[in-house]
Amino acid sequence: MGTSLYRSLLLSTGGFSVSDYIRKFTVRRYLMNNSLGLWYQVSIQDKEQDSDNNPWPPSICQNTSKWQRRPKEVTIQSREPTRVQTFDPESQNGVITPEIPDLAFKILSSFSVLPVFPDDCPPQPAPFEHRIVSAKQVPMGSYYAVKQNEVLGGGRFGQVHMCAELSSGLTLAAKIIKVKGMKERDEVKNEIGVMNQLNHVNLIQLYDAFESRTNLTLIMEYVGGGELFDRIVDEKYHLTELDAIVFMRQICEGVQYLHQQYILHLDLKPENILCVNSTGNQIKIIDFGLARKYRPREKLKVNFGTPEFLAPEVVNYDFVSFPTDMWSVGVITYMLLSGLSPFMGDTDMETMNNILHANWDFDAEAFENVSEEAKDFISRLLVPAKCSRLSASGCMKHSWLNNLEEKAKLHRVRLKSQLRLQTYLAAHRQWKKHFNVVAAANRLKRLQKARSGNPV
């Protein structure tokens, strides 16, 4: 699969979609195609405007926060060699009412049919250069304004708030972690050390850090698109297997980079995969609070994680390594395509027993329209024997994540997983009101002790 095609797939509404032909248009308008296959027309201003006055989503303007100066010519994609639809450019935020297709030819400058894809829309990097961070023991308020009423997320550690750098106005996210003792403080500093090694478009970036008597605060890249599963359960989102491929390819690229740095994430789950914005398909992996540096000569064991996504070796309190993350990738893929959690039982104990016995299958109804390639991909990850699982590099070479030109023609059916995921998310959030990861870790520890014959 060509890099340019993959990059074009990262943009859906407000960006390019899969197509077969290239056309060149003049000055005043872009013709763009969203993820539903709908074309719309966008007028481009002569002068730059602030994003607050911009009636179109920033992603339409090549993922920038301002309008760009009008080019003499713009190259875009078309699915057909002789026909283009235009849409009324007057309404805001895009429209879905087509005009007469032939009107589009009035803005044609030149026409050519080329079996290539544009390569001018790479995945958006962090809005700052990668940096090495150490925790400052100075008041954070001297440098950043934290918006206490804008909570982006939370968990066992505390909360994540939106914040802004006072000197530049840059929007960022502040992860405020309560620390009670040296062990907790060292764990957060381990997270800082891990993030200092990460410089990849699909991994959230660290910007700054502060240490006080009661808290450690990580200032990170702001990722505003919300959790991946929240995005795809929206009834307006048309989730296809091709979308799932695009998401999973990015996850595998991020994990591949982690493993190349000898880092294990150890908490891969849907909550830790965020969309960069609310329109495109680019994602970032977050939360390295449980991540560990992998040293082959040091046998690493862990007793934490979220039960549904634990690998058998974690449940057994056996040694963990790169394949441990790949099991979680398999679970996420299964859920994305089916809307079902493959190992979830009525209790955590039942869930972990299902994991230990590899008690899962492809639900006939849930996987009715899912390709055999996708099922093969999952089957090569949800393997009890660590050494038999696909590596991240192996995933990138698997046929399911490649040849997207052909898959774009085949996988246009809306997946049934969306409705099931709505039910799953509702139940999961109800559960989170009463439990947290620490409680789950305690239950896991009790199970491990019971299996080893030690008294609890």
TrEMBL record:
Report domain Protein kinase positions: 146-401
**Could you tell me the Gene Ontology terms of the biological process aspect for this record?**
intracellular signal transduction; positive regulation of apoptotic process
Q: Which residues bind ATP?
A: 175
Q: InterPro entries this protein is in?
A: Kinase-like_dom_sf, Prot_kinase_dom, Protein_kinase_ATP_BS, Ser/Thr_kinase_AS
GO MF, one example: ATP binding
Query: Can you list the GO cellular component terms from the UniProt entry?
Result: nucleus
Q: Which UniProt keywords apply?
A: ATP-binding, Kinase, Nucleotide-binding, Serine/threonine-protein kinase, Transferase
User: So what family is this one in?
Assistant: Belongs to the protein kinase superfamily. CAMK Ser/Thr protein kinase family.
Q: Please identify the protein, giving its name as recorded.
A: Protein kinase domain-containing protein
